[in-house]
Amino acid sequence: MITLKDQKVVVSKDSLLGAEEAAAQGIDLAKARENTLACRVMKAHSKASEKDDLFHISFDALISHDITYVGIIQTARASGLQEFPLPYCLTNCHNSLCAVGGTINEDDHVFGLSAAKKYGGIFVPTNLAVIHQYAREMLAGCGKMILGSDSHTRYGALGCMGVGEGGPELVKQLLSRTYDIPKPEVVLIWLENAPRPGVGPQDVALAIIGAVFKNGFVKNKVMEFAGPGVRNLSVEYRCGIDVMTTETTCLSSIWKTDERVQDYLALHGRKDAYQKLGYDEPAAFDALVKVDLATIEPMIALPFHPSNVYTVKEVQKNAKDIFAGIEKEARAKFGKAAASFSLQDKVTSKGVQVDQGIIAGCAGGSFENITLASHILDGRSTGMDAFSCSLYPASAPVSLALVQNGSYTRLMAAGALLKSAFCGPCFGAGDTPAHGALSIRHTTRNFPNREGSKPGNGQLSGVALMDARSIAATAANGGILTPATELDWEKIHCDLSYSFDQGIYEKRCFNGFGNAHRDEKLVLGPNITDWPAMSPLPEHLVLNVVSVITDPVTTTDELIPSGETSSLRSNPLKLSEFTLSRRDPAYVGRAKDVQARETARLANPADKALYDEIALACAPLKETNPALWEDVFGSGTLDKTGIGSTIFAVKPGDGSAREQAASCQKVLGGWANLAEEYATKRYRSNLINWGMLPFLLEKGMGQGMVPGDVVLVPHVRKAVASNTMDMEGILIHEGKAKALRLSLGSLTEDERTIILDGCLINFYKSGN
């Protein structure tokens, strides 16, 4: 079905060659590597530098939604923003329907429109489109690059490289700075044959994710899709696969383009955005993922991760055993909260009974997916029992086309619910299932909490990812889990021709790019606040460990929950109260205690009582290394020794690009993360941009840590300034001091300066 080759592969004359075979034919692998489409597009957007061999990328456009754009614009304002130098689109698809916090959701939208007028941006009002659908319809073009403050910024199927990052990276672009990255490896995703009827894009995507996530096969790399199978997929099908590449932890993706892409762009009024793109032969790739589309089965990603992949047939056959394993994992992860969580109860004499089906967002809410679902349900019923089915078209133009082709009529007659464009089911703010329920969803993620449940409060549901076709087949079967390949596709005749009405956007969207009105006043609702002041990195750091997470992976949803917190993203202090609330509720209190000591230090570095407290905490060092202790504490004051908090997590940062996963820690006095590995580049970037040290530990070194431990990092400022990648820390644990090797990994010159200055805002204020 899917085969991996972790070796260089060369495409020459449409044949796949191994490195030795290519070399025997006289192919220069180094030059051939420059012929990949991904490399050529990135190189075309990169400024040359004599300082390093990094890519220094300037993007063609930016895009954000309403739980990120306020913080981004506030950060850019504080850093000297005058006008948006490139198209910046502000969409409103996240907190638009979250009725939390009184007026503050709509206050954010009013702020966004005023910012678009003042700085020259594009504003898409609520419920007109989810962020990535609008980008596909109106922004993406062949050979372009778009940076978005959402992890699923993926437009590769249109020949456009999308990168999802935390807000500070967008701030850099707004201030005419560059996105600086090492040249990434490029992995060839070679598609062959065609999928069978009933197999959809989510099935292909989940099969790929299942093959490459756990082994990190494409982590921080670019996935380049090519091969004869591409021509057998519609553009919307390609987009459905492409948007899910985020769940592989790749950096970005890009596909070769053809006449189907040309037709898609012309249909959306942008025929000039088309170019025929592909690798130049011979093209050398760093690894290969070969996908035989004809062998892909309907897939399901069971709780609690998109990589927990099975075929639907496997689950039908072995549901009890598979569900027992998931229940065991839930109890290990959530303890008492999972005591009454039982998926085995869903196994009946008829099959696996599902409670809810959702088709939504940038992954599921496409015209083709919903049209096919409507034909599967035509003349059927979703039933009058507990099972419910909801569909969220990805944009108003898609909704209109579905009305015109009769899909709305078919779906409503079957008992399905049609809703407006909204990302809610994907981040825990829409169609939250009941405690203990099993929900199948064509959305992007199924992390715990992501659907809206709160394990910390004893609420836990199970979400599984599936393709829209199989969700509709399940709905047509009364909620009994059913793969769409069991349907008689010869009887399902479906016209997928699509008419796009751009007038919907022309009548409602504001486009002020190139026409900024600098005298326009920003409308700041009472919840919209500035970032608190942040200090430069001190000479020495005393880090108090305030949370220890030993799970194999920690998601950004666990670091800062989505859903009910979305309305507070414009208020850094209020939002920070929710940091780690679903994973370690005691974190905030511990972090505030540490922060209070740092506040006291800044007010009076010579405070003897505080000095005695900190020196006593580090006293075991005095016995093992008196010279170092004297170096740090010998002055009798804390004028050069800062006090901050840190967390240890084995592999933090999987999932969302949201910067708040890092910024909330910083707002609460965090100075560092300790980890064996960072799940994504974007989370590490967020730490750096908020002035936090992204320390790496050797495997196993953090496993014995507990809250209350202290990590002393002497001369940390000097080490960062001199680009010292590895430094010695001291762990104070159970009254004993031991050396702790800390690594920062590779940092650019700007990244080092950002950390030294204390955050990106300070970096710009200091004239950088």
Structure description:
The protein has 768 residues and is of the alpha/beta class. The protein has 29 helices and 32 strands. The strands form eight sheets. It has a seven-stranded mixed β-sheet. The protein has a six-stranded mixed β-sheet with strand order 9-8-5-6-7-23, sandwiched between helices. A five-stranded mixed β-sheet has the order 1-15-11-12-13. Strand 16 (299-301) and strand 17 (309-311) form a beta hairpin. The longest helix is centred in the middle third of the chain and has 23 residues, at 312-334. The protein starts with a strand and ends with a helix. The mean pLDDT is 92.
DSSP helical segment count: 29
Strand order of the largest sheet: 29-28-26-24-30-31-32
- If you average the pLDDT, what whole number results? 92
Structural classification:
alpha/beta
**What's the total number of strands?**
32
Q: How many angstroms does the end-to-end distance come to? A: 51 Å
- Low-confidence runs of at least 5 consecutive residues: none
Helix content: 25-40%
Largest sheet: 7 strands, mixed
Which outline best applies? globular
Radius of gyration: 26 Å
| Beta-strand content estimate | 15-25%
Summarize the structure.
The protein is of the alpha/beta class and 768 residues long.
Write the layout of secondary structure elements.
Layout: E1 2-5, E2 9-12, E3 15-18, H1 19-24, H2 29-33, H3 37-44, E4 55-57, E5 61-64, H4 69-78, E6 88-91, H5 104-119, E7 122-124, H6 131-138, E8 145-148, E9 161-164, H7 167-174, E10 179-181, E11 186-192, H8 201-212, E12 222-226, H9 235-242, E13 252-255, H10 259-267, E14 283-285, E15 287-292, E16 299-301, E17 309-311, H11 312-334, E18 356-360, H12 361-364, H13 367-376, E19 388-392, H14 396-404, H15 407-414, E20 417-418, H16 424-427, E21 438-442, E22 462-465, H17 468-476, H18 503-508, E23 510-511, E24 540-549, E25 554-555, H19 556-559, H20 572-576, H21 587-603, H22 608-617, H23 619-624, H24 626-633, E26 641-649, E27 652-654, H25 660-667, E28 670-675, H26 681-689, E29 693-696, E30 710-713, H27 716-721, E31 726-733, E32 736-743, H28 749-757, H29 760-765
Parallel strand pairs: 5-6, 5-8, 6-7, 8-9, 11-12, 11-15, 12-13, 18-19, 18-21, 19-20, 21-22, 24-26, 25-27, 26-28, 28-29
Antiparallel strand pairs: 1-15, 2-3, 2-14, 4-10, 7-23, 16-17, 24-30, 30-31, 31-32
Helix pairs in contact: 4-7, 8-9, 13-15, 13-17
